[in-house]
Amino acid sequence: MDSPNEVIETQTPSMDEPWIAVARSAAFALAGYSLVFQVLAGFAAPVTVIGLVFLGLGIAIRSGRRKLAFTSGLLALLLVVGSAAPLADALTDLASLEAFALNLFLTLVCLVAFAAGIGSIRRSTGRLLRPAVWASASLFLVGLVVSVIVAAGVESAEPMAGDARVVAEALAFEPEVLVVSAGSGLWLENRDGVRHTFTVEGTAIELNVPGHSSGRIELDLEPGTYRVICDVPGHGAMSVDLTIKEAQL
Fold first, then answer.
1. Residue 197 pairs with which residues in a beta bridge?
2. How far apart are CA 61 and CA 72, in angstroms?
3. How far is 35 from 32, CA to CA, in rounded Å?
4. Is residue 40 over pLDDT 70?
């Protein structure tokens, strides 16, 4: 029989444990996001490094490791800040469902990770945790539904006889050198999940094509050589050397 003077020690969970658990889950979610991004967009070394960093943090974050939870949240916030321009572009392009959904997920998970890091380091109670997670999940679902509706209404253009044809895939134009006659049309097929533009520098000609769709435009240009770019943030490597030659009678 236990002595009445014996002290029985019980271990009660810290108030910040829910925040640490969310921080760990967010780190794993960001690691998973990087893998999905690689599959959809092709191999990208920076994305691989980011994924491995968050995978390591997810494994390392355990009960009581508030500083690691805060570090993970801070890195998540820096990821959003550093990607602000392409994120803003993707989040305003509801017609490109794939890019919109991925970037909305990334933004919300990063914000939740940062909030969890703050809650962990401050040893806050989990009173606001559940509403924050539910609000994020609800916002994602609402945004996804709206994007599905908008993307379903996108109509792809069909090429016309004599059109020059360009394919945008894996953040590159193909072909990268294009020679067409004055007055020709151009048909652009976008095989990526993110929008691309066919912007002729120094002119008013710009074709905007949402992800997984196609568009067409008339190349009303004087004979000469032009540089074509995609002006979507982060797509600076996409370019075409366009030569317009005299139309044959």
1. 208
2. 9
3. 5
4. no
Structure tokens at 209: 């094509």
- Nearest residue to 83 (alpha-carbon basis) of 102, 61, 70, 57: 102
Please state, rounded to an integer, the average pLDDT across all residues of the chain.
Answer: 88
Strand bridging mode 177-181 / 206-209: unpaired
- 164-245 — its CATH code? 2.60.40.420
Which pair of structure tokens corresponds to residue 125?
């109670």
In this prediction, residue 11 has a pLDDT band, given cuts at 50, 70 and 90, of very low
Question: In sequence order, what are the beta bridge partners of 171?
Answer: none
| Residues forming CATH 2.60.40.420 domain(s) in the chain | 164-245
- Considering the entire predicted model, what is its pTM? 0.85
Helix (H) or strand (E) holding 2: none
Residues in the chain: 249
Pairing state between β 239-245 and 177-181: parallel
Determine contact, residues 42/132, Cβ cutoff 8 Å.
Answer: no
Nearest in space to 100 (alpha carbons), one of 194, 176, 10:
194
Q: What value does the mean pLDDT take over residues 202-229?
A: 94
- Could you read off the pLDDT of 130-189 as tens digits, one per residue? 888 899 999 999 999 999 999 999 999 999 998 999 999 988 999 999 999 988 999 999
Band the pLDDT of 27: cuts 50, 70, 90.
very high
- In the sheet with 164-168, reading across from the earlier edge strand, the strands are 173-174, 164-168, 185-190, 213-218
CA angle 26, 30, 33 (to 5 degrees): 135
Nearest to 218 by CA among 156, 153, 155, 157: 157
